[in-house]
Amino acid sequence: LWFIDRMDPGGPAYTIPLAVRLRGPLDAPVLARALAEVVRRHEALRTVFGEAGGVSFQVVRPAGPVPLAPVDLSRLAPAGREGEARRVAGEHVRRPFDLRSGPLLRARLLRIAPEDHVLVLAVHHVVGDGWSMGVLFRELTALYEAFARGEPSPLPGLPVQYADFAAWQRERLSGGRLAAELAWWRERLAGAPAVLGIPVDHPRRAVPGARAATLAYALPPATAERVRALARSEGATPYMVLLAALDALLARWSGEDDVVVGTPVAGRTRREVEGLIGFFVNTLVLRADASGNPAFRELLGRVRESTVGAFQHQEVPFERLVEELAVERSLSHTPLFQVMFSMDDGGAKPRPFAGIGVEVFPVRTAAATFDLAVAAAERDGGLAVSFTWRDELWDASTMESVANAYAVLLEAVAADPGRRLRDLPLTPEAERERILLEWSRGPAVPAPRWLVHERVAEQAARTPAAPAAEFEGRALTYAELEAAAGSLAARLHALGVGPGARVAICLERSPEWLVAVLAAMKAGAAYVPLDPVHPDARLAQLLADSGARALVTQESLRGRLPDLGGSVVVPAPSPPGPLLEGARTGTGPDDLAYVLYTSGSTGAPKGVMVEHRALAATLLAAREAFDFAPGDTFAVLASPAFDIWAFEALLPLTLGGTARILPREAVQDVPRLAREVRGVDVLHAVPALMGELVRAARVGGGISRVRRLFVGGDAVPPELLAEMRETFPAARTHVLYGPTEGTVVCASYAVPGGGGAARRMVGAPLPGAALHVCDPAGGVLPAGMAGELCVGGPGVARGYLGRPELTAERFVPDPFSGGPGARLYRTGDRVRWTPEGELEFLGRTDQQVKIRGFRIEPGEVEAALAAHPAVRHAAVVAREHPAGGLRLLGYAA
C-alpha cells in the first residue's frame, strides 16, 4: 500500500470510511478524549511512513489529542442540513492522506441539531482494515461511557502491538513453511488467465482511474432462505453459493471456463490480535473451473473444494504471492484477478451507548480498487447485494443489467441447482420474451415470390421505355437491359453455364455490370464480382478459388486475368433493335445468386455464398422499411465487389426506378460527385466518402432533391450525422448495418430529427430479419449487457465456398426461430440492447487482429508497439499504394 501511494500519492482508493449518526445528548469533549485514548492504545493509528533510499520505514509517533474538527450545520435551514452533512462527510473521507506526515486517522463531528450529530472517521488502509473499524468503534463507545461517568478506562492493556505481529509473521513465513505454502499456490494457480475477458464498454486505459460507481439492491428473504437451504444440502456455506453464482455469471459473460476472483479474509488467526487495529486483512485468489457446462450443483462442489483449500493456505500475504509467482505486472489491471467478492455475515452492528442511539450514516469514497467488486451481506433475513465498478470501463446501464442477471441466476439455481450453466437464465421471463418477440425480430413480411432477374423482366414488360440505368449521359431502358441480359445469358448457356455454375465478372463500372449480373442469373449461375482496381495476384487468387466456369470481362482487362480455357465472354456494345431473350433455366430460391469475397480479419479471402431467396428477401425488406417511390433514382457509388452495390444498383430495378451508375473517376472527384448526386433521390455512401461529400456539397448550398439518405459500413461520427442533416434538408437519414454473410443489410437506425446519437447505433432489424445479442454459449443477454450479435432470418447466407469448417464455426443452429434448418450467423460484432429496444455497436468480440499476406515495411509496426509496452491489441491502418502493395498510415491500439 505504501508503494501504491508512491505511484498515486493521495489516491482515495485505500481510504476506509466509518460514519455513524449519533442521536442523543452527546458530550463532544468526552468523545474527543475517548478517541484520543483509542489512538494511544493502538500504535498503528500513530504510525507514519518515512523513506530512505527508496525504502520505507515506520515511525510511531507519541500519543496526543485527536481533533474532532467540528462543523455546525444546525444554523442551516432544516431542509438543507441532511444534504450538506452528506456532502461534508464525503469530502472528508475523500481528502488525501499523506503517509509521511500523517495523521492516518482523521475525525470530523457534524452537528445537525443539539442532539443529532454525525461522527465521520477516515482511516488509511495501510494502518487498518474493516475488522479494525469494528474494534475502533467498540473501544470508542466503551471509553465514552466510562469517561462520561468519570471513570477510568475499562479496557485491559493490549498484549501485543501491530509491529509485534508483523515481526512474528515475517519469522513464521520463512524457510520450509513458506516454501510449502507457495508450492500449493503455484500448483493451484498454474496456467490461470492473467485477465478475465469480461467485455467492457470503453477501452481499458493504460493506467486506470479510481473513480467508482455503485449499484445496490436487496434479494427477498425467501430467496435468501433458499440459498441457505441449498448451502446446507450441499455441505457448503451461503458464501460459497453466492460465489459460485458469481462464477457462473462471469463464465457466461466472458465466455471463459477458467474464472478467477479475489476475496478478502480477516487474517487474524491468533487470539492475541483479534482486538488489535492494523492491516491484517489478506486477499485470497479463488479459481473456479466452469468447464464442461456443469450443473450448478457440480460447480458449487468445485467452488467449495477450491475455497476450503484457499482458506487453509491463507497466511501467505497476497503481495508476497504476486512476487513469488512472478506475475506479469501491468498498470492497466490488478494482478491475478480483477473481480473481488466479499460477504458480510451481518454480525456485530453499532450499539447504543450512554443514552445515545447509533445508526450507520452511509458515505462512500467513490473510489474503485478493482474493476468490479461484488459484496453480499445478511440484512434482516434477506440478502443485500452491491456492485461497485470502475465507471471508466462500464456504463451504469450495463452494470444494472449485470446486477439484475446475477439476481435472476441466483433465483434459478436456488430453485433448481441441477440446471447446467448454459441453461441458466440471465433475464426475467417477461423481459426475455420482450427481447425475443418484440426487439429481436423485424416486422413480419411474406417471402417474395420473385427472384431479382424475374422481377426485372416483369418490370421490362410493364415499362419497357423507362430508364433502368444511367451512365455518363446515356440511359439504358428496361427493354434494352432485359434484351442485353438475355442475349448474354444465351451466350453463357452455349458455353455450358447452367445451374450450379459460377460466372466471374470483371468490368469497369458501367451498365454492362447490370447486364452481366442479370445474364448470369438468367443462365442459372451465381455471379462472382471481381474489382479491376485489385492487384492482378488477388484477381487470379479469387478467380481460382471461386472455380468460375466462365469469365465476363472486357478487352482492356483480358491481359490481367488468367485464361479459363476459352470461356471468356466479352460483351459487345448493344446494337440497335431487339435482341434475342436467350434461354431461361429453372433457377429457384435455393440456388446461389452470387459469391462475394470478403477478406475478414485474417486477410485470407473467403467467398460468401448468397442464395436468391436471401437477396430477394433483403431487397423486399428494404422496400418495406424505407418507403421508396416507384420511380426513384439511386446513386450507385459502390464497387460491385461490395455487397452494398446490390442495395444501390439492384434494389431500384425491383422498384421500377433508375440506377445512376457513377464511374470511378466521378466517385474519386468529390466536387464532381457533389454535382452528380444533385439529380438522385436516394444516396448511400460510407462515412469517409459521405464526410467529403457533405463538405463539397455545402459550397453549392446543400442538396434538396435527395429524399432518402443512407450511411454505413463503418463507424459514423455523430457530428457527421448532424452535418448530413444540414446538407440534405429534405432527406430522411438512416445508418445501415449488415455483414456480407447476412446479405447486404439487416438493420437500420433512423437518425432522429435533431441530428445523430452520441453512440454508434445498429438500430432495429429490418422486416423479416432477426438480431440476437448472445453470450458465448448462445444464451440471450438482457438489455445493457454486451454480447455477440447473431443474425437470423431469410437473409442468412449459405456459408463459405469450400470452407466447411469455417462455415460450421460461424453459421450455427438458430435456437430461437423454431424452424427446421434455421441458422444464425455469428457476426463477431459486440453489441447491446438499449433500454429503448435498439442495438448499440460496441466493437468486435475478437480481441486481436492478425494481418497476413500484406507487405508492410519491416519492423515499422513492431517498433511502434514496442514504444508503448502497455499496448496489448492493435489494428494496422493502411491503404493501397498506386504502385502496388500497401502504404502504412498508422495504427490504433
Question: How much helicity do the residues have?
Answer: 25-40%
Q: Mean pLDDT, nearest integer?
A: 88
Rounded radius of gyration (Å): 35 Å
State the shape. Answer: elongated
Distance between the termini: 30 Å
Largest sheet: 10 strands, mixed
Notes on the structure:
With 893 residues, the protein is of the alpha/beta class. It is 33% helix and 23% strand. It contains 24 helices and 36 strands. A hairpin with a 2-residue loop joins strand 2 and strand 3.
SSE map:
Layout: H1 2-7, E1 15-23, H2 28-41, E2 47-52, E3 55-60, E4 71-72, H3 78-94, E5 105-113, E6 116-124, H4 130-148, H5 162-172, H6 175-189, E7 212-219, H7 221-233, H8 238-254, E8 258-265, E9 282-289, H9 296-312, H10 318-324, E10 339-344, E11 357-360, E12 372-379, E13 382-390, H11 396-415, H12 429-439, H13 452-462, E14 467-471, E15 474-477, H14 478-494, E16 502-506, H15 511-522, E17 526-530, H16 536-546, E18 550-553, E19 568-569, E20 592-598, E21 606-611, H17 612-626, E22 633-636, H18 644-655, E23 658-661, H19 664-668, H20 670-676, E24 682-685, H21 687-698, E25 708-712, H22 718-727, E26 732-737, E27 747-750, E28 761-765, E29 770-774, E30 787-792, E31 799-800, H23 804-810, E32 811-813, E33 823-833, E34 839-844, H24 860-866, E35 875-880, E36 886-892
Parallel strand pairs: 4-5, 10-12, 14-23, 16-17, 16-18, 18-19, 22-23, 24-25, 25-26
Antiparallel strand pairs: 1-6, 1-11, 2-3, 5-6, 7-13, 8-9, 12-13, 14-15, 20-21, 21-31, 26-27, 27-28, 28-34, 29-30, 30-33, 32-33, 33-34, 35-36
Helix pairs in contact: 2-4, 7-8, 7-11, 8-9, 8-11, 13-14, 13-18, 14-15, 17-18, 20-21, 21-22
